[in-house]
Amino acid sequence: MTTRGHLVVVGASQAGCGAAAALRGFGFDGDITVIGDEPHRPYTRPPLSKAVLVGAESEHSVFLSVPDDIQLRTGVTAVGLDRANNVVELADGERLRYDGLVIATGARARRPGNAVDSGQNTLRGLDDAVALRGQLASARDVALAGAGFLGLEIASAAAGLGKAVTVVDQVPPLVTRLGPMLADLVLTAAAEHGVRVKVAPAGVRIDNPGRLLAMDGSVLAEADLVVTAAGDVPNTEWLHGTGIELDGGVVIDSACRVAPDIVAAGDVASIRGRNGRAMRSPHWWNALSQAKIAAATLLGRESHDLVGSTPPFFWTEVFGLKIRMAGHLPPVGDPMIIDGSLAERRALLVWPADGPDNDFGTAVSVNVPISAPKLTKLAQQLPAHQRTR
Ligand SMILES: Cc1cc2nc3c(=O)[nH]c(=O)nc-3n(C[C@H](O)[C@H](O)[C@H](O)COP(=O)(O)OP(=O)(O)OC[C@H]3O[C@@H](n4cnc5c(N)ncnc54)[C@H](O)[C@@H]3O)c2cc1C
């Protein structure tokens, strides 16, 4: 195992800081430098679209602690990689030599079509959240382009602040992620909170100022605050031309390996599934677990933990529903009800693994407090023959 030398982590957020902490936890006592392009100390993003946006939690609560024996350099952008000389090239011209490299540059908000010119807002970072919170305070109506988890969390926050909210998406919200039963639960709760949901199959255009238009020009929503939540784009530009395989992200193997001396983790990393397609899993828990796997791999440690060896886990909080999900999504068929019911909006549900391509079933909790490890265990436990119907 490597114990000395200089390890460089590019990206100072969940995956980068998680990897640095794991490297120390595994006993690496050489130098670790973490480079981050944001001006802030590292912070965690999930509260930004929830408690921070509604003002229930201060933005100061999101900062991560970084041990003193890790050199943290913020406001510094990596612009290139000289693999022949093991050097990370920084925007100010500095060349930072590494013995091992962790790529953890995450993702940024995707800005669809004309969004950059149209004065619209989005939510990815701390500055976005603080700005959006300020704009929400004075807005009467809010229009969201994009009704994925992030779009609906922003809609939920805005509705909770008493705003008139319209959400527009190209597809029926959440069905491909949660399946029809849970998507319906969320949309029913959204309607109860006064949120209007519209589907525009041909897409949405943002008209300046404050209008969402369908492609035929018809007006879908008018609002004094328009926000896009249209997915994310991995930050891989600094790796172009380096020979590192980029396919929807930095391609990793199940040990998070990119090259013998390079690993990647978190929202930037993509891994090939059985169908050969490379896919990212841009969720908090994934960033942390890949960070640990990447650190172990970089140090040459034997690890039983591999990407995909445990069910993926993530959560969302919308319209009074705290939903935690583990395993294969969307769930297929009818669930076993372990506790509560969807009607009372307090339920623990398990779907068995379905089909030869799914290693895991699905476990979902709605307003039932359960830890991620317990939920992921539930997603693994149930054999297919135990299906209820
Ligand atoms: C508002 C919001 C709410 C969320 N809520 C949930 C939730 O409820 N549940 C859930 O499971 N997940 C949630 N997520 C997803 C989760 O936060 C991400 O999966 C996680 O942040 C990924 O961490 P990361 O370190 O891989 O990437 P990031 O958090 O994107 O961090 C990457 C860092 O690298 C920096 N960087 C990029 N390029 C460079 C460069 N060239 N040089 C130096 N630095 C660079 C970036 O600026 C950034 O600071 C949410 C995300 C957002 C944005």
Provide a compact summary of the structure.
The chain is 22% helix and 29% strand.
Q: Portion of residues in helices?
A: 10-25%
Biggest sheet descriptor: 6 strands, mixed
Give Rg in angstroms.
Answer: 22 Å
Which fold does the CATH topology of the largest domain refer to?
FAD/NAD(P)-binding domain
Shape: globular
Return the structural class.
alpha/beta
Question: What is the overall number of helices?
Answer: 7
N- and C-termini, Cα separation: 51 Å
Mean pLDDT: 93
CATH 2nd-level architecture of the largest domain: 3-Layer(bba) Sandwich
Strand content: 25-35%
Structural domains: how many: 3
Poorly predicted residue ranges: none
Q: What is bound: which ligands?
A: flavin-adenine dinucleotide
Strand order of the largest sheet: 3-2-1-7-19-18
Name of the CATH superfamily of the largest domain: FAD/NAD(P)-binding domain
- CATH C-level class of the largest domain: Alpha Beta
Q: How many distinct beta strands?
A: 26
Explain this structure.
This protein is α/β, with parallel strands linked by helices. It folds into 3 domains: 6-108 and 232-298, FAD/NAD(P)-binding domain, CATH 3.50.50.60; 126-228, FAD/NAD(P)-binding domain; 320-386, no CATH class. Helices cover 22% and strands 29% of the residues. It is built from 7 helices and 26 strands. The strands form 7 sheets. A 6-stranded mixed sheet has the order 3-2-1-7-19-18, with helices on one face. A 5-stranded antiparallel sheet has the order 22-23-26-25-24. Helix 1 (14-25) crosses helix 6. The longest helix has 18 residues, at 175-192. The protein starts with 5 loop residues before the first strand and ends in an 8-residue tail after the last helix. The model has no long low-confidence stretch (mean pLDDT 93). The chain binds flavin-adenine dinucleotide. Flavin-adenine dinucleotide binds next to helix 1, strand 2, helix 6 and strand 22. Flavin-adenine dinucleotide (FAD) is lined by residues 10-16, 35-38, 45-46, 48-49, 77-78, 104-107, 123-124, 150, 235, 238, 266-267, 282-285, 287, 314-316.
